[in-house]
Amino acid sequence: MAGRRAEMMEETRVKLIAAGRRAFAEQGYADASMDDLTADAGLTRGALYHNFGNKRGLLAAVVNQIDAEMAARAQAVGARAGDDWQGLLAEGVAYIEMALDPDVQRIVLRDGPAVLGDPSQWPSQNNCLRVTQQTVERLIGRGVLKPVDPEAAARLMNGAALNAALWIAASDDPETVLPKAVEAFRCLAAGFLA
Description:
Layout: H1 2-27, H2 34-40, H3 45-52, H4 55-79, H5 84-97, H6 102-116, H7 123-141, H8 150-170, H9 174-190
């Protein structure tokens, strides 16, 4: 009985996150109606309040989901790069390039910071930071990178990629800004090479 209840609760969360994701992508956070998105999920406002507290809580769950997907995609790109250094660069560039995705732009890079605050403090960003720091530590250990503080280097690289993505999302011409941001990111990262 308890297992089925937990299953139903998870199904409700999944439905609400999917409906929130659609609503936030199509209308933006400010214009997304809680009544419409809960009706879209076939649920009540009470289900939203019970699971997420409010619309802001739902946005946080949606941002977390998308950010986790972005990190997984970037890590997959990095894994195909061949070595840790090229992988680290490829992950950063992949993250920056995702700023061209309209859903990522609106939900994660515009509404997310406006409603949830500093993206560098989001739990999903902390997970990315840990992975980057581990890679930096390996590269320092192999003499590929200068012997700088690994956390500092990881924070600066992740921050550069995040800020480049934010710049692209806020730009009037994201397609023109993207190559500039990628080139600058690569130059900044190369400064860490031994």
